[in-house]
Amino acid sequence: MPVVDVQVGASSDDGEEVGVVVDLTAAWITLYGTGNDGGWRWTGVNIPAGANIVTAYVTIYIEDWPHDRGDGKTLYLENNNNPPTFVAVDGNISNRPKTSGVALPAGNLGAGWEQLPSIVAQVQAVVDGQGGTGDALVALIRSFSNWDLGVRTWDGNPDQAAQLYIAYTVPRIPRGPATGGIDPQVF
């Protein structure tokens, strides 16, 4: 089964947006308050059209338990089969087209690595709606509450940047009947 297992690999491939102001160099994406956004972009994805997504999730490195909570946070994918990297332009994270979202679990999240809820449906929506993925895929997270969530960025520590894992199958293309190497259209 083909697998995508990648980590954010550049400063401009993760960032936060507070209000509409984008910051691509902070050590943490800090989601606190209504309307704060964060995003991660991974390259090397390349899922073909027609793929069936079996498993998909994001793993993040969380700053500080017991203060970090998933309450009121929703994870989306950018509905684009090859999204560009982030730029420090107002609204560059929040204004990207989104798939349906998945809520993070309520309550305290542990410090260190945390696997977020399944995004199989969101990845499948991008694959089906966009004819597969190109080289890149973007996840977006939005805060709808005053509970804090601090997530390590590539600039904070590249080894603790967000990770993306996707396992998928590709349907087999049925082959026609055996003709013994003779093209039936010739005779």
Query: Number of helical segments?
Result: 1
Structural domain tally: 1
Kindly estimate the percentage of residues that lie in beta strands according to DSSP. Answer: 25-35%
Widest beta sheet: strand line-up: 3-2-5-10-7-8
User: Roughly how much helix do the residues carry, as a percent range?
Assistant: under 10%
Shape: globular
Compute the CA-based radius of gyration.
19 Å
CATH class: Mainly Beta
- The poorly predicted ranges are none
CATH level 3 topology: Jelly Rolls
Order of helices and strands: EEEEEEEEEHEEE
Arithmetic mean pLDDT: 90
Question: Which structural class do you get from the secondary structure elements?
Answer: mainly beta
Polypeptide structure, described:
The chain has 187 residues and is mostly beta strands. It has a single domain, classed as Jelly Rolls (Sandwich). Helix content is 6%, strand content 35%. It contains one helix and twelve strands. The chain has one helix at 120-130, and strands at residues 3-7, 14-18, 21-23, 28-31, 37-43, 52-62, 73-77, 102-103, 112-115, 136-143, 149-152, 163-169. The strands form three sheets. A six-stranded antiparallel sheet has the order 3-2-5-10-7-8. The chain has a four-stranded antiparallel sheet with strand order 1-12-6-9, with helices on one face. A hairpin with a 2-residue loop joins β2 (14-18) and β3 (21-23). The model has no long low-confidence stretch (mean pLDDT 90).
